[in-house]
Specification:
Layout: E1 10-16, H1 24-35, E2 39-45, H2 51-60, E3 63-68, E4 82-83, H3 85-90, E5 95-99, E6 102-106, H4 109-117, H5 121-124, E7 128-132, H6 136-149, E8 153-158, H7 161-174, E9 180-184, H8 189-196, E10 197-202, E11 228-231, H9 240-247, E12 251-253, H10 255-271, H11 277-291
Parallel strand pairs: 1-2, 1-3, 4-6, 7-8, 7-10, 8-9, 10-11, 11-12
Antiparallel strand pairs: 3-5, 5-6
Helix pairs in contact: 1-10, 1-11, 4-6, 4-10
């Protein structure tokens, strides 16, 4: 059987576990076609026990760089040679670039969060916000909020409060931001946090393909009129979290907004060329929306 393998192409990819949900390969391969760059993007499903070896093998295999997705955005930092200022301040990486056999970690999630929420800057400033989660994605959200939107207070809601406390201490020490309040997921205080917040962010994998019916929201009866709900999950585009918010009159921001922007920054880091983002979006927006419909769930975009 003949296979179309480009042995001369520069290789990039994504490392995570699981990895089937990722739409990054589609975005980058589309951008490579538009720019006529000779690159190839692959997805690597890596177990936790193999993470160190997988990262150290990037240079040996001639791979130019990779994205890092859940659950390795924090753990990957231990195995890198250099870390950018933003990634160090966030405490997580999502993009690695191989330079002179050195692994350099970046965090383009920050670019994604900032671009996704930029239209709401004035509404978020000096207001309370709620962030579900305390992992690498949540760290990028909290850093972006502190640095670019300056909320009055951030509620971090997480099942594991000890991990949330580490996040709180990290930003108190690194950013001198001391207005983070910790709530346990499913605690009664969760309703209070959302009630007080102008912005509510899901920075957990809850609701991600294939578990599309899962919803981080506990109280589905709250009045959300005028609040902004942002989900980092992008597959499906309209998660149960966002559907609940929209039914209750909230403004919703899908994870696609962040996905495109962080991908564009990673693309530029690897290639030195700007991603033709408008062309990529025009090509893929409908494809991603169609893939999110229940009748299409049997086949994931990958």
């Amino acid at each position: 059987m003949k296979r179309n393998i480009k042995t001369h192409a520069k290789l990039v990819g994504i490392i995570g576990h699981p990895i089937l949900h990722s739409w990054s390969p589609v975005i980058h391969e589309t951008a490579f076609k538009f720019t006529k760059l000779d690159y190839q993007y692959s997805a690597f499903d890596v177990l936790q026990k193999n993470l160190r070896d997988a990262l150290k093998g990037l240079s040996a295999l001639g791979i130019v760089g990779c994205n890092v997705t859940v659950p390795y955005k924090e753990a990957a930092m231990e195995f890198l040679d250099e870390i950018s200022a933003d990634a160090r301040l966030v405490g997580a990486v999502n993009t690695i670039y191989v330079e002179n056999e050195m692994l350099v970690g970046h965090n383009t999630d920050v670019d994604g969060v900032v671009e996704a929420l930029k239209p709401f800057r004035e509404q978020i400033s000096d207001q309370s916000v709620t962030v579900f989660g305390a992992g690498g994605g949540a760290r990028a959200v909290v850093y972006s909020l502190i640095s670019y939107f300056r909320p009055e207070q951030i509620f971090v809601v997480n099942r594991d409060t000890s991990r949330a406390e580490l996040l709180k201490k990290f930003f108190a020490d690194s950013q001198n931001y001391r207005n983070i309040k910790i709530d346990e997921l499913h605690n009664l205080n969760e309703g209070e946090a959302i009630k007080k917040s102008k912005l509510v962010v899901n920075a957990t994998p809850v609701g991600m393909f294939p578990e599309v019916k899962e919803n981080i929201m506990v109280d589905e009866s709250a009045d959300l009129d005028g609040k902004i709900f942002f989900d980092l999950v992008y597959n499906p585009v309209h998660t149960a979290f966002l559907k609940t918010a929209r039914k209750r009159n909230a403004i919703i921001v899908s994870g696609l907004e962040m996905l495109y922007s962080q991908a564009a920054k990673a693309f530029e880091l690897w290639t030195g060329v700007a991603m033709p983002l408008e062309k990529v979006r025009a090509k893929l927006d409908q494809k991603f929306l169609d893939a999110s419909e229940p009748k299409e769930r049997k086949v994931a975009v990958h």
